[in-house]
Amino acid sequence: MITKLLDAVESKSLKKKVPYFEIGDVVDVRCKIKEGDKERIQVFTGTVIARKGRGINEMFTVRRMVGSEGVERIFPLHSPNVMDIKATRSGKTRRAKLYYLRERTGKAVRLIHRHSEHTVTK
Length: 122
What we know:
The chain is mostly beta strands. It has one domain (21-109): SH3 type barrels (Roll), CATH 2.30.30.790. It has one helix at 2-10, and strands at 26-35, 38-52, 59-66, 69-76, 82-89. A 5-stranded antiparallel sheet has the order 4-3-2-1-5, with no helix packed on it. The protein is globular and about 45 Å long.
């Protein structure tokens, strides 16, 4: 009963079009950054290593390497600050969470490219 009520209230805040992407995909996340009174859009490109939650609470974690340091950001999927998510490359995985990539460096971080009908090519 309560779950149905919560889903009804949350449905107004959900995004209508959520782009398709999976764990292991390389994505470009365009997010709105507010600095003082100015706003700009910044692109964060990396590999999706986790997805969790459902409904308004759904989150995904994107990891990328900057120099020799790994940087991870957790984005709420339905946040108004996340403008766009674009999958640029699809990676073949056999796990739901790719936390093992945290210990890897260099070419070992790359995943095998998956050729499927879900691959976005533009």
